Amino acid sequence: MRRLFSAAGVDYGQWRALARAYTLIDYAAILGAYGHAASMKAARHLLYYVLTWTIIGSGSALYILLFSDTWLSATIMTTTTSMLVAFVVLAQTGNLIAPDDYEIVGFRPVTSRTYFAVRATALLVQTTEMAVFTGYLPVIAYLWRSGGSWRQPLAAALAIAGTAVTTTLGITAMYGWLLKWLRPAALVRYVTFAGVFVLLGLMGMNGLFFLVVMNIGDAGITFSDTVSLPRTLWILWYPGAWFASYVEIARGGASAIAWTAAVLSVAATGALAMALGDRLTAGYAVRVAQGFADTRVVAGGSGGRWSALRHEARAVTLIALAQFRGDLTFQMGVAMTFVMPAIFLGAGWFADTGTDPFVDHGGAGSIVLLTIFAAPSSFLQTFATSPLHEASWLFFTTPADRARLITATRDIAAVCLIAPIAIAIAGLMWFSHHHLGHALLQAGFVGALGYVNLQLAVLFKPSLPFSRPVATGKRPSLPAGIGFLPMMTGAALFVVSGLFAFRSLTSFAITAVVIAATIVGLEVWTRRRLGVVSRKLAFEG
Amino acid sequence: MIRTERLTKRFGDKTAVADLDLAIEPGEIFGFLGPNGAGKSTTVRILTGLIPPDSGRAIVAGFDVAQQPLEAKQRLGYVPETPKLYESLTADAFLDVMGALHHLDPHTSRTRRQELMKLLGLQDAQYQRLREFSKGMRQKVVIASALLHRPEVLILDEPFDGIDANTTLVMKTLLREMAAQGKTILFSSHVLDVVERICTRICIIDKGRKLVEGTVADICRSAGAPSLDEAFGRLTGVRESSTVTADILAALARD
Q1: Tens digit of each residue's pLDDT (9 = 90 or more) over A206-252
Q2: What is the per-residue pLDDT for A88?
């Protein structure tokens, strides 16, 4: 092992010590290093993490059971795996390009390649962990399909592992290449947003799956009759099919194209590994160091703006705007918040095109209502947590009214989240059924219920802005916030809208009065509760 | 004024502050000394309202920090040790935020922050983000924020950490002048030289308990030491510096 590492220019002893330390750090919280509460929190997060990837893996497993074409189902499985790995790697970009520990180990006698190998190992541990949680159901599905034979499940496991490793190597190599032209900070920014788009694609893919299932089911067609992968040379252009060919080969009677695809997969992995072992990593530490030495001055906004705002509202607005301009974590969190509304708006567009709920009397437009399903609590969570949470000392050492700080945060969420969604819905519905008045009423209805959802989120989990730490040892996962409370609210919205609100203008007016009364009632309740709770909030620095 | 009465704070089994009684009058610069882990920062965090005490009282400008926190904090200026800041804010915007949190009207806030930034040599960097600031420049911004609302009481935790010599000189003079105007200043630091020069009275604590309190001369006399350095060492049980140095050199010389 030492010789192998030495040949690659990596010091085995240093690599082993640092890789072990990083792995322990990743699992420190769950192992109880930060106390029982942090351990429980990390365990809950791990459970959520396992469940999320299992659910996504179940999509691949369903395809495997539905499609008779093994290569096609395996290609969907490897595509899903590669997208998930891409998301994890992109979400961890900061660890690879601008690792925090560079200031700790950067001046020690650790070579550039050793340092890079350590970071890449830490990343591979994470992607492998994710691949295991995503891949076990597809492997079981192949076991089921092949009647207990071990060949196809084993090939599927190899395909998943190969996809995970190669995607990680591919993106890592891309970083090394891009770092030659881009500043590390700029690269982190670009790829982090790329991660949001990958996530959007992933969710869209799963959403498409269910739409296809519904439509094909309605037409009385089965998957096995209609869909298969073309066995032509064109398939070799798609890397996902390369690794999927292992399953096709394991099934027996594979074509020359499948064998070629398998050879390409091995060649691609080898080429990427060699590229990383060659020039790309030699200057890695130097480029990261340049990132630290980057003293480019960026002019920020002055205070003094927003003269209409006073006191707590002014303070929260100034901090939020600055964080949005300059804090990548916050930018990404806000972008993530809009992922779900965008998907539901898209789904609502497909499902409800041309339907006017006031004319069709009932649940039409109800998918659009889901745009506010989870967004408020997710948005508030983004506002509450920050890697700079220790800077919240200023909320505790000044005479600021913490209840007002919390409600100011809520008001920003109303303006920046609920209002744009309501405007988008109004435009979409106007374009869809050409009745501006109905579109505005529908948007107002969604906006008002969104605000109720926001009020409930604040009421049950009040937090000062940017004051809570990001969970220690946290793994990158899909946007949280689809909690019990918003789900219940979403279900209530379905019932209200479907059963009553859109039956007539009169029923709509009654619903509007009920919602307005709810908003007022919740406002009174919120003020009373925050008056008590805000005093008990503890500084978490 | 600042007063603590039987102030106690525990973290699990460890008692960080035990029955601490302090009384600091207007016009005083009170040096608060102790070795690492003595309980200085915990006391300061209780006085500023960052954490609540387990028992006892912390009184700032006549108001109990736990019972009347807003009244106490209106009169308090605080410079934390190595302060964390929202780094995307510019110096100007940070001071604007602090002014808003102290409920200053925007015009007053703008006038005062421009004045303070000029006095502290920050005017050329006022629209730069705090992320780009050196440690000393950040410290200057935080000092400006502590003075922005003209507090009656100043609590400074290692305030000169990273600050250049010229600004340190200005700050020392400023603190003396503020004390002369009747402000109450608590100065927590490890730098004995600075404490010795500017503080009118000193308290040394260790393991959460007050060891000694008085002027430099009082403390030296009670410890039977010729200087504050030696008195601090004797009172906090630190071995003679020459012995420690010899032991370290011997350890380094071993294979």
Answers
A1: 555 555 555 555 555 455 556 677 777 888 888 888 999 999 999 88
A2: 76
A 10 A CB-CB count for A506 gives 8
Question: What is the reported pLDDT for A219?
Answer: 52
Residue in B closest to A465 by C-alpha: B86
CA distance A55 to chain B (A): 37
Q: Taken in order B53, B57, B63, B67, is the CA torsion positive or negative?
A: positive
* Residue among B78, B84, B126 minimizing CB distance to A391: B84
Per-residue pLDDT tens digits for A79-92: 888 888 887 777 66
Q: What residues does B30 pair with on adjacent strands?
A: B186, B201
More confident residue, B246 or B70: B70
Give per-residue pLDDT as tens, A94-113: 556 555 556 655 666 777 77
pLDDT of the residue at A481:
44
Q: What is the rounded distance in angstroms from the CA atom of residue A115 to the CA atom of residue A106? A: 9
* Rounded Cα distance, A14 and A22, in Å: 12
pLDDT band at B248 (very low <50, low <70, confident <90, very high): confident
- pTM, 2 dp: 0.74
- Suggest the residue from A398, A409, A464 to mutate for an interface test with chain B (most B CBs closer than 10 A): A398
- Nearest-CA residue of chain A relative to B130? A300
Q: How many CB atoms lie within 10 A of CB A305?
A: 15
At A301 the pLDDT is: 57
Residues of A in contact with B126 (CB under 8 A): 302
Nearest to B98 among A323, A398, A466 (CB): A398
Pairing type for strands B153-157 and B55-60 reads unpaired
Per CB-CB distance under 8 Å, the chain B contacts of A311 are 100-101, 103
pLDDT of amino acid A250: 92
CB proximity list for A412: less than 8 A, separation 6 or greater: A316, A317, A320, A383
CA distance B12 to chain A (A): 11
Distance from CA of B152 to the nearest CA of A (A): 13
Q: Which of A300, A535, A541 sits opposite B128 (nearest CB)?
A: A300
Nearest residue, CB atoms, A302 vs list B71, B90, B98: B90
Highest mean pLDDT among A20-34, A369-383, B46-60: B46-60
Tell me, what's the ipTM? Answer: 0.89
A331 to chain B: closest CA residue: B88
Residues of A in contact with B128 (CB under 8 A): 297-300
**From CA A303, how far away is CA A307, in angstroms rounded?**
9
At residue A303, does pLDDT exceed 70?
no
From the list A304, A397, A399, which residue is nearest B103 (CB)?
A399
Percentages helix, strand, coil for chain A (3-state, rounded to 5) are 75, 0, 20
> What is the H or E stretch that residue B153 is in?
strand B153-157
Considering only CB atoms, which chain A residues are within 8 Å of B61?
A: none
CA angle A453, A459, A461 (to 5 degrees): 100
Using H for helix, E for strand and C for coil, what is the string for A251-302?
A: HCCCCHHHHHHHHHHHHHHHHHHHHHHHHHHHCHHHHHHHHHHCCCCCECCC
At A493, list the tokens.
């919205």
Band (pLDDT 50/70/90 cuts) for residue A489 is low
Across the range A441-446, mean pLDDT stands at 86
